[in-house]
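Teaching note: in complex prediction, the entire set of molecules is handled at once rather than each chain in isolation. The prompt given to students was simply: 'Predict the structure of this complex.' The entities are:
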Amino acid sequence: MGWVVRYALRMMMPSGGSLPGVVDTHMVTFLRQLRREAPFTVRLGLILGSWFFVFGPILTIFVPLPAFLLSKRLREKHAQRATVHRFYLFRQAVLLVKMFAGLCWGRDPNVRAGFEMAPLDPDPGTWREGS
Amino acid sequence: MSHTAWQPKGSHFELEADYVVVGSGAGGASAAVTLARGGETVAIVEAGPWRAPKDYPSSMYGTMRDMMDDWSTLITRGRALWPVVQGRLVGGTTVINSAIVVRTPGDVFDLWQDEHGFGGDAMAQKVWACQDRIEKELHVTPVPLEYEGRSNRLAREGAEKIGLHDHHMTRNVKDCVGQGQCLQGCRLHRKQSTNLNYVPEVLERAGHVLSNAPVERVVFEGKRALGVSGTFRHPQTHKKGAAYFVRGRKGVVIAASATHSPALLHRSGVQSPALGEYFRAHPGSGVFGCYDDPVHPNAGVTQGWSSLAMRQDRGLKLETLHLPLELTAGRLSGGGAQLMQRLEEYAHLTMWIVAVRATSVGSVKNGWGSKPVVRYTMNQHDMERMRYGMHQVARMHFAAGAKAVIPGVLGLPYKLGPDEIDQILAVSLDPRDWTSILSHLFGGCVAGVDPKTSVCDGRGQVHGYEGLTIADASGLPTTLGVNPQHTVMGMGMLRAEELLDR
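The expected output is the structure of the full assembly:
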């Protein structure tokens, strides 16, 4: 997945607070896995959602700049407003970014340890062969 | 006979049995095992792979990849885009649901009799007899109190305080230890999904299972169903493999789900004005409660408490649901540092949901790439009931000791205190402002006596065709107001018994 997707996930679940951000997890590995395994529609949805999110500050805070050129304060304001925006399709596109950020973040052992949750076992991805 | 999984391109696979059953979930597996017990040879054809508990994923990412229908990308087309959740593997949705078992209420059979010309007390007795058997065979027991977890306990206390009758759920789970992993499939073998019992029994009784074998069409000779054809799909790469044809000497039983069964019949050229119509659901939405002490929402039974107190007059069902950490991030509103701050209190949050016995009606058609297209919009009346149900859930949370609730509806503050919950009763009824899912699905190939308004008759036989039976939730003409698995299984068994009696 491209730089815009990585930036979007990072902006959605940033580091800096008491919890690790998505960038502190195995985000790059996750995105590689997603690119390899997910069907085209899923990948397309995430890419479109990321582009909307990164290039959407004009719709949320009325600043005609992409998110990566904004100050931290404005970027935060944009991230907050994007998820509750009145324009439904924009909001849903951004929700996809949040969903995938959550899938990546929530399976990380360090994140889970912070909530006193056991690490997840690997997903074997195996199936029963014919007999 | 045996199990045939993915077959590479370059060969052609053919098989013959007395009956072909399309789908191996609640309806398909129970119909197939009944036919096999009656001495018929059965071939089950399942679109997804066969995964044993050791193959189950642990994460929600893995669950979407390995168990959900097309990564759970099926969404309603209508005013709002709501996800339609279904399993796609041997065992179908029985592998990934919370195994809740509720007998079909008697009023449902009366309703079918009054409005669709079949059902009534005679059918009720037969379905309940099947459900007696299912309950014994699948170890249906109440949720064990020692493993229910704090969320389910709080729900019970909260409901009691606001005067709601409730019950411990009964589930087809043997010796549950409250791992909270129902949605990912129970890796401890405790949940008695059909891939662990009925499907293997079909194999033992000289049956055959084709997995990774989505059916492309039902093959007819004139108006008689001869069998099904399709192409194997690799479970990992999704590449097409060998073509196959499975002949059913005595008939074809369709149990591919309320979305896939009508789409399959559309693709196969079945002519019926009612095909794909009368699609219904129990849409659901959740409210988080925020508690001072940790709830640890993933410790204990995934869904262990419910109330049917408002089923009759309001058409509502209230229940608990443990939402995995990975999905909670997507469910809480907000983004950026604000979202991270909200996630800090995850251990103190727990979600309870309201499911609506909706009167809204949608449709299902076959779409591009054999994907079903579901058109569905909740009407104003149903939205009002969902809003009322959400208010009741919020009341329950406060009665159980919550300091705030998080309704997650656009237009409401992120959190509401005990004095603010009446704001819920004034919130927008636009479905686009709500976060909901469709998990209990009905119709699309509904049963009834009139061929103009139904696809099959009261015995599941498709009007105007021979040897074609509907045995899943797509044949149910109404919603139930309770979890549908048990009804679908009971009806699947009954359909098969009727075939054996012919």
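Point out the following to students. Chain B has a mean pLDDT of 96. Chain B has two domains: 2-68+86-139+184-274+444-501, 142-173+280-360+379-435.
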